[in-house]
Amino acid sequence: MLTAVMRHLEAKAIDEALDLFQVLMATRLLNTAKRKTEKERLSTLPQLEKASRVLARAAKVLFEELELVEEQAADLDVAALWAAVEEVAPRAAVMTAAATVGRAREPVRHRAPVPVAVG
Fold first, then answer.
1. Which domain of life is it from (predicted)?
2. Structure pTM?
């Protein structure tokens, strides 16, 4: 009887140790992935800041031009709008800046986390 109790306790202890090991490994892997993600996001901040400045200047000009069109009840001239925006930044730079900001909003995707089964 004592041997059976010892084997049961030994098996339970091994199961608990393996569960703890699984939790620790999953935590370690997830923390590594989080640090990597954070480092990647931080490395993009200078490009994001530059892109945001370009878009802010272009948007300011665009809004000013749209207000003028509205005040004068004139027809919207797309070519004139682009010309006004391109005085601040080339069209390609505006489009690249918009793409940069758009990418920054996308979540960073990693492999699926390791499932943790406790109990």
1. Bacteria
2. 0.57
- 97-102 LR contacts (CB < 8 Å, sep 24+): 97/50, 97/51, 97/52, 97/54, 97/55, 97/58, 98/51, 98/55, 100/47, 100/48, 100/51, 101/48, 101/51, 101/52, 101/55
Residues 49 and 97 occupy one common structural domain: yes
- What CA–CA distance (Å, rounded) separates 119 from 113? 19
Least confident of 11-20, 37-46, 60-69: 37-46
For residue 112, being part of any structural domain is answered with: no
